[in-house]
What we know:
Elements: H1 12-23, H2 30-42, E1 46-49, H3 56-66, E2 71-75, H4 83-86, E3 87-92, E4 97-102, E5 109-113, H5 120-123, H6 127-132, E6 134-137, E7 140-143, E8 149-154, H7 167-170, E9 175-178, H8 184-195, H9 207-217, H10 224-238, E10 252-254, H11 258-274, H12 282-286, H13 289-293, E11 298-299, H14 301-305, H15 310-320
Parallel strand pairs: 1-8, 1-9, 2-5, 5-8
Antiparallel strand pairs: 3-4, 6-7, 10-11
Helix pairs in contact: 1-3, 2-11, 10-11
Amino acid sequence: MSPSDTSPSAATPLMEQVLYEVKRVVVGQDHFLERVMIAVLAQGHLLVEGVPGLAKTLTVKTLAQALRGSFKRIQFTPDLVPADLVGTRIYSPKTGEFDTALGPVFANLLLADEINRAPAKVQSALLEVMQERQVTIAGETHKVPSPFLVMATQNPIETEGTYPLPEAQVDRFMMKVLVDYPSEEEEFVIAQRVTGAAASVAAVASMGQLAELQQECRKVYVDPSLMQYAVKLVSATRRPDRYELGELARYLTYGASPRATIGLIEGARALAFMRGRGYALPEDMTVLVPDVLRHRLVLSYEALADGLDADALVQRIVRKIPVPDKPLAP
């Protein structure tokens, strides 16, 4: 397949309409909104870290309204059990049989709010549904609606009463996005909107249209050299010695899995698709590297002692691995 086989996307106006509707309610947060749209198009899941009050919940709820999709929110607490998420079997005295009550994960857009406030057994209840898009209850399999996106939030401030996410769970999130405070100008607009008349959100697309966009996004051409670039970036987190990054070996206990490579490629596809191109460029991938890798690296105690975080190590890797040449445009 060559770049000329895929024409530039004609879906950009529709994506702009969706973003316009979301921005009528959500002020600023352009980086966060772009990552949400990338996750939606690439059929990935999103882990969001930010202090309370930064419109994380509002963004997903507004997006669901603009896409005419079902939206469910789960507030994770220490007393949750897995059945509160996926559902359970309930005995009916009238019929003498067990009926299946499906849980809140059966929605197009699922918000797992403060996911690190629930124990690992509850967090792990999302493992099957995030990877397989299905839930098994009492041996019976139930498919979740399609398209399906999980967006989980966690609060970086409080550590009391929180539980670290299992590594297998973290790896299923395509990206981890850090949400920062708005600027003074943005906060002024936020105050105006919240204290004024409520803005209405128009449904500008449907879940069927979104499914079509996802299929078209999969047709975006990614040059083999760009795929190899993604492989090298991820491989450098596991075996830094091979890429003349031996000084990082003592800081990394475990590197990223092959899901990171897939996430980089699919993310670059989605970003190129949003920009109206039928082919991905290196810059589509490089801007996503921190978001795709930061939550997948397991740092050693030595890295923490030296004040290094995952982002600092990722930046060293990005500077070392050469970026491939741009493919010929169709």
